[in-house]
Amino acid sequence: MSDRGQVLILCTANSARSQMGEGLLRELAGARFDVYSAGARPSSVNPFAIAAMRERGIDISNHRSDHLDQYLDKAFDYVITVCDHAAESCPVFPGRAQRIHWGFPDPAAKSGDDEEILASFVEVRDGLEAQFRKWLEALD
Predict the structure, then answer these.
(1) Which residues carry out catalysis?
(2) Pairing label, strands 33-38, 98-101
(3) Contact 56, 28 (CB under 8 A)
(4) Per-residue pLDDT tens digits for 68-121
(5) 90: CATH
(6) What's the mean pLDDT in 110-135?
(7) DSSP secondary-structure letter at 5?
(8) What is the mean pLDDT of residues 60-64?
């Protein structure tokens, strides 16, 4: 069993926001946390999320989209929802998990050419990073 904190990041499809959040928190927190992400209706990792994270120097191309059910028996310290639907449908997790909600718009909902769509992913990525940095500072 790890002495590190346990964090689960949830979003409906576990394809963009939660995947980027997982990659960012792993990068920012180092060995402080074991970080996972999942969704209520998992799909696959969005290629634009992979590209936005690659621009940031973080490789999430090997991530997979997990269903939150596979984590229901795991004790988390923090369960962070990054979309409003996940916050509403998130099950109760056992143990002492502190629930945190940060609502970010779905970057995959953006229409336009590839450049415009990627820009929406970068915007959400940067918002997630700012939120995680602020949260980690508050924990210290």
Answers:
(1) 11, 83, 90
(2) unpaired
(3) no
(4) 889 988 889 999 999 876 556 665 666 688 999 999 999 999 999 999 999 999
(5) 3.40.50.2300
(6) 97
(7) E
(8) 96
Sign of CA dihedral 10, 60, 116, 124: positive
Structure tokens at 15: 């394809």
pLDDT the model gives residue 83: 85
Q: Quick one: tokens of 100? A: 């945190």
Give the model's pLDDT for residue 40.
Answer: 85
Look up the domain containing 57 and give its range.
Answer: 5-139
Nearest to 79 by CA among 131, 133, 5, 1: 5
pLDDT value for 72: 86
The pTM score is 0.92
Question: What is the number of domains present in the chain?
Answer: 1
Tokens of 91: 């099950």
Tell me which residue of 41, 56, 45, 40 sits closest to 17, measured CA to CA: 45
Token pair recorded at residue 121: 């992913």
**Separation between Cα atoms, residue 12 and residue 48, nearest integer Å:** 17
